[in-house]
Design brief:
With 148 residues, this protein is mainly alpha-helical. It is built from 4 helices and 2 strands; from the N terminus they run ααββαα. A two-stranded antiparallel ribbon has the order 1-2. It comes from Morella rubra.
Length: 148
């Protein structure tokens, strides 16, 4: 993303240069993933706000954070602005998804050109019981229902 145009089309000189360029490309891919995730969370928050205030009376008072300042407005004024912000965020997410696909394709072509193979570390391929270890981080499971 921050590389100069002449650097992108120049051939890497040695294995270290290929590895460095590949690392940079993977880092850019991870940055795009992170930004998409962050913006999708904002879209979700906007949806929650819209769903919470939509059924309320338009003349009802509400508060909105604008540039770090909490201002008092009516729902009639705030709802359209929140909806526009949500639509704008969705457009940005769509463009980032396109950029993500382009970057994935670029990385795949780079891997094919330089015959890059990703090795899995020993801990990923085998643990003591011979099966792959799976992380359950970020998953929230509620109690089982009694209707079984």
């Amino acid at each position: 993303m921050a590389s100069r145009p002449e650097d992108e089309h120049r051939e890497p000189i040695n294995e270290q240069a290929v590895a460095n360029k590949y690392g940079i490309m993977r880092s850019e891919l991870n940055q795009i993933y992170s930004k998409i995730t962050e913006l999708e969370m904002e879209v979700s928050e906007h949806s929650l706000v819209i769903n919470a205030i939509q059924p309320l009376e338009p003349s009802r008072r509400c508060y909105r954070m604008i540039g770090g300042v909490l201002v008092e407005r009516t729902i009639k004024e705030v709802l359209p602005a929140v909806q526009r912000n949500k639509e704008g965020l969705e457009e940005v997410v769509a463009r980032l998804n396109e950029a993500l696909e382009r970057k994935k394709k670029e990385i795949a072509e780079f891997e094919a050109k330089y015959k890059i193979k990703i090795r899995k570390s020993d801990s990923e391929t085998n643990d003591d019981s011979g099966r792959k270890e799976v992380s359950s981080q970020g998953v929230l499971v509620g109690p089982a229902s009694g209707s079984e």
